[in-house]
Amino acid sequence: MSLVDHLPVLVVIIPLMAGPLCVLVERPLAAWGLALAAAWLSFAAAVALAAQVNGTGVISYELGGWAPPWGIEYRIDTLGSYVLLIVTGIAALVMVAAKESVASEVPEAKVARFYAALMLAFAGLVGIVATGDAFNVFVFLEISSLASYALISMGRDRRALTSAFDYLVMGTIGATFILIGIGFLYMMTGTLNMQDLAARLPEVWDTRTVRAGFAFLTVGIGLKLAMFPLHLWLPNAYTYAPSVVTAFLAATATKVAVYVLLRFMLDIFGIDFALGRMPFEYILLPVGVIGILSASLVAIYQVEVKRLLAYSSIAQIGYMLLGIGLASTTGVTGAILHLFNHALMKGALFLALAAIAYRLRSTSLQDLTGLGRRMPWTMFAIVIGGLSLIGVPATVGFVSKWYLVLAALEQGLWPVALLILLGSLLAVVYVWKLVEAAYLTEPRDDVAVQEAPLSMLIPLWVLVIANVYFGVNTEVSVGLARQAAAVLTGGAG
User: Fold this and answer.
1) Which of 63, 127, 458, 463 sits a CA distance of 20 to 30 A from 39?
2) What is the pairing mode between strands 59-62 and 73-76?
3) Is the peptide bond before 229 cis (omega within 30 degrees of 0)?
4) Is the pTM here over 0.70, yes or no?
5) For a pLDDT cut of 70, what percent of the chain falls above it?
């Protein structure tokens, strides 16, 4: 077998091995170099896998040569390759910006361990997407979660410790629910292989054990993806974590959790069970709408920009849940598209905040006054990211919201379409607060500020350009999302 044949496992092993190596090298610069190389190698592997899936179809990799369902299978399909590209691409760009940001926010003695934890969090997220085994999803989820708790606790503010503890408690409850749900499915089917589970579950759909397993999985995954009202851990975690951690987790962790929801609910249980026999769509639609409106309203009143964008993330997760709840190919296409587009938006916005924190040691709204003149490239990046959040045409935010509105109108749910537009109007209010502070307020005379270093601006602007490019040229993103949605829904609606 050639190296290419091992790509499904290499994409996970590279960052997983880089983690301990970062601790061994000890020196901050060497640890950063190792983490950077691992992230870019994983991204290269993900690009090769996406090309392979596009050319030859689903990739199945037998771990240790044991054929599934007896052995563990790594399985990359269209949806998996799509999410792998997002996670590895964001990680590669964040690692470029990390050198300066981490040096300014994390004590030098902890830097090597910081990069080790970041690599483990990254490996866990990639593993969740690559594996075709339900129990392995739980294992990789715990690897990424445990590393994330450690990363959040390294923030400068002492409140980072309590934020990490809150996340640990909520995350542990979520992981326990997921494990119980998987245990119930194994009890009824005798298999953990996802494809085998999907084939065997229809025979036992009507048992209370399977229904209970579905309920446990729904709540557990809901906690991990910060679904309203299970989102209480997220605002503090994003606010007090080191800036690089916030940028990485905001653009990847919740997206992978949405992927897990799609994989379990629509692929393993199937759309007929999840959105037919079980009243899941009647939960997702109201939860999605309430999440969009309530989190957007709370975001308007925030004075700390990281917290403002954290609540905005909860609202954006609402859009994805709404798309899944519409239970049609167009709706799920919109949800998958928003998963990709939101990663680009939040990656750009939080990297811009990392640049501001690097110069000002603060991301408070009052400290952004007049920053449009002093950090023009960084603030203009925030403006474009904000326009994308609103859903202005020629940005990625418009494309996914267009599909969600279309899906709602297809089913005659015009009130839902209006609520999606209302969510965008609320986004105008909180994005305007940032623009007003940066461009329409006089700069403070007591603070001398320079533009961010080039090593932070380059990855930031790569994401900003991607926000516009994929908003204008939608062929690749929409094509892959529609293809994945058609498989998940069986062409429903």
Assistant:
1) 63
2) antiparallel
3) yes
4) yes
5) 97
